[in-house]
Each structure stands twice: as C-alpha cells, then as structure tokens.
Amino acid sequence: MHAVTNLSTKKAWSKAIAKPATEFAQSKLPIISGSIPPSLKGTLYRNGPARLERGGIRVGHWFDGDGAILGVNFSDEGVTGTYRYVQTSGYEEEAAAGKLLYGNYGMTAPGAIWNQWLKPIKNAANTSVLALPDKLLALWEGGKPHALDLQTLATIGIDSLDGLGDKLAYSAHPKRDAKTGEIFNFGVSPGKNATLNIYKSDRTGKIIKKSALELDGVPLIHDFVLAGQYLVFFVSPVRVNPLPLLLGLSSYSEALQWQPKLGTQWLVFDRDSLELVNRGETEAWYQWHFSNGYVDSSGAIVAGMVRYEDFVTNQYLKEVATGETHRVAKSTLWEIHLNPHTGVAANEQVLDKHCEFPVVPPQQVGQSASSTYLSVHRQGIDPSQEIFGAIARFNNTTDTLTIADMGENRYPTEPIFAPNPENPDTGWIITVVYDGNTDTSEVWVLDSEGLDREPICKLSLPSVIPPSFHGTWQPG
Question: What is the pLDDT of residues 184-204, one digit of tens each?
Fold first, then answer.
C-alpha cells in the first residue's frame, strides 16, 4: 500500500483515478454532438475499479480497487446513465471503518501479521459483468459473482448460480454462444496443485454441468477460448510461490513467479461433456485476454490472443494504480493454430502493434469473426507513460487496421460492439472516454465499419468514470 501522492506532474489520465469515483443515480445524458441512431436500443454495462484509496492510503495494485458499475441505457425516451459501487461485504465494512481492512490481489491486509489470516482477501467485484434475463452479475475471478438489479444497479448479494457450491469461484470472462444461449465459464480453486473447475450454464445463468481437472502447481488463468465444439485453456508459465503467501509475507501478486522453462500448457475440452480431449505444451508466453476462437475447415482450432513475451505486464498494471507508469509491457495480436488431437501447428503474430482488450461481435463468439476490435496507443506516444488513447478495428480478412484516435489526453475504454438489429453484422462501437483536458467523462458511439470517421454521437456523463476493465452490451 502507498500513501496518496501529488499527481500534478503526472499524465492527464492519472486525474481519473486520483480520488474515488462519485456515484450517480439514473440521469438523462445530454448529447454533446451528433445524434443517437434510431435502431440503437439496449444497455451498455461496464465494470472497473473505482476506489483506489481509503483513509489516505492507496491500494497495492490496480486490481485491488472496489468495483463500480456504469449502466448506459438507450431507449425511445433518450439515453440515461447510472453509476453505483457494488456493495460487497468488504466494501461496506471498510466504508463503515473509514479505512482499508482487507488484503487483495496486490496487497496484504493492513496491520499485524495475523490480519492476513483473519481478513485475507476482499471480493472486489471489479472486473467484468454478465447480463442475464433477470439480473446483472458483477464478476471477480477470485470468488463468486454479485447479483445486481438490471435497472437500478442496486446490489442484491452473492449469487451461486444454483451450482457453485461453497468454495468455487466464477471467473470474469464467461463465453456465451449466441445461437444456443449456453454460457461457459471456469474458476480456479487453490491447493498444492490448483483445480480448474469448468461450468456450463443455460441462458438464465443456472449451472447445468460442471467438471474439474487438477493443474500443475497454482497458475494464473484469467481467460479462455470458446471455439466451435471446444473450450480451450492456455496455461502460461506463471506460478504461485506458496510459502510467503501462506505466511502472510506477500500478496498474491508478489508471490507470482515467471517460470518460462515450464512453457505454455494447452488444454482442450469438449463443450458438451466438459471432458478433457487433449493436452500438451508449447513455447512460453503470457496472455490476459483472448479475442475469439473457431474451428477452421481442416478441423484445427484457431485462437486469437493478445500476447506478451513475459509477465512484466503485472508490474505495469501495479504502477497504473499509482497514477504514474514506467514499465513497457508490449503486447501484440497473435493467432494460434491447434489441432485438438495432435497439438499446436503454428503460432503467428498478425498485428505488430501494442494492444489490449480484444473483442469481436457477440454473435460471432466461437465462430470465425470478420473483425477484432482493440484498445491501442496513439501514434508517437511513450507507452511507458501513457495508457491507451485510441481504439481500432482489425479486419481479419484483409489484415488492415482502422484507428479511432480520441485526441490528446483522451482515454477510451475497451470497445464494446452493439449489433444493429436490422443488420447484425454491422453496428456500433460504444466506449467511455475520459477527457483529461476537461476532467470529464463521455460516452462515444462510433460506426463499427468506419472507426476513423467522426463519432455518430457523444454524450456527457455526470461525473468522472475511472478507466475500467470490461463491459457488455445487452440489447433492448
């Protein structure tokens, strides 16, 4: 943990996280420019760490901040926005105490050493969201999801999805098959050797099937791939050193070690039975996020990912929470071709540009997708000092990149694809932009086929929304 420092000499983005975000109840969002497309109906939900300090002390890592949900609803009556913290038990306890009480991914619990066992980890509910027919789930991969009201974003409570049991976690990157409505996800249970738990749910989120596989050591698994009839996991060579963690001498993040000699393991499961089809090993890399996966005409699995050469990305993300970064953790877009029966056939870099937060149109998840949308850096900036200032569309057929540069000191979030109901292969990209020039936040709607054109519309938000991790679009 760190004392709050002076942010005056830091980059413009640091102002967005300098103080805890301010909630707002449902409010009409004024149009700054352009007009709202008549066919754009539904709700954008976003989740991210919105409070990175309490009682004058900052958290240890960007991943430690309390989660807050932004809901932006597009309807015939106009556009409204709501922003609320997820009322986890840890959040409520710390709010009452006026200070940090819990450990988390990048910090140990404050105070005496025995606090590490009394109050070890807080569910921050800060990573992603899953919109179900009757509730919104705020996701955090170290524990169970929190259910929220879809309209008011009021916290209902911990949700076990009728099948998680007492100790099973539910990751922040579920995959939904748009044709069947099935939802797939996983969670990792700790132990001398961790257990990978895989879940299949119906369209309501209820878990209808589970399986489990013992892993080698305790790896860090953040995301996976749905590709046709397969679920694919790539287990990078990051492992927990258990002793300092168990003794309360280090946080989970500090206990993670990069061990490239282990290589990257791959695991292929059948999506219906959730049984292991095959496993193997290839060269070492790290990835947080996959863009998509599909099975090609030869029967090979093709998986897209944002790939790092090592685990320096973790240190960079720790620095983000301080408002000042120094490391460069370059990531580029890759495709992995994997025969589910014989192993990896080829690894290919398809875009040599620092990028993250890859998404594809939701109706193309698990199938060959026409385009991948990404967060990228602006041209000519220093990536060790700035966070992403542009979004881009990578055409998977022509290998061409179209960039929407937000301008100096403006920072967009992960691009979310909202399909046009009249032609679902086209649609809009919706992103939340923090403007460091005016210390305000806006919602931008762009043409998915023409990101380099002027935004279709911009809307003003009542308060600053700090940079967030992941979101989803729920059609209206």
Answer: 999 999 889 999 999 999 999
CATH code of 305's domain: 2.130.10.10
Which of 408, 312, 425, 423 is CA-nearest to residue 367? Answer: 425
424 exposure class (CB count in 10 Å sphere: 0-12, 13-18, 19+): middle
Q: How many residues does the chain have?
A: 476
For 311, phi then psi, to 5°, come to -110, 20
Measured distance CA(215)–CA(237) in Å, rounded? 12
Q: State the number of CA atoms in the 13 A half-sphere of 80 facing the CB.
A: 11
For residue 229, which amino acid is it? Q
Q: Identity (one letter) of the amino acid at 34?
A: G
d(CA 231, CA 141): 18
Taking CA 299 as the corner, what is the angle to CA 294 and CA 300, rounded to the nearest 5 degrees? 60
Give how far the C-alpha of residue 139 lies from the chain's centroid of Cα atoms, to the nearest Å.
Answer: 9
Which neighbouring-strand residues pair with 187?
197
3 state SS of 181: coil
Q: d(Cα 28, Cα 331) in Å, to the nearest integer?
A: 38
Number of separate domains in the chain: 1
Two structure tokens written together for 260: 């490239």
Q: Which residues span the domain enclosing 356?
A: 2-475
- Is the pTM here over 0.90, yes or no? yes
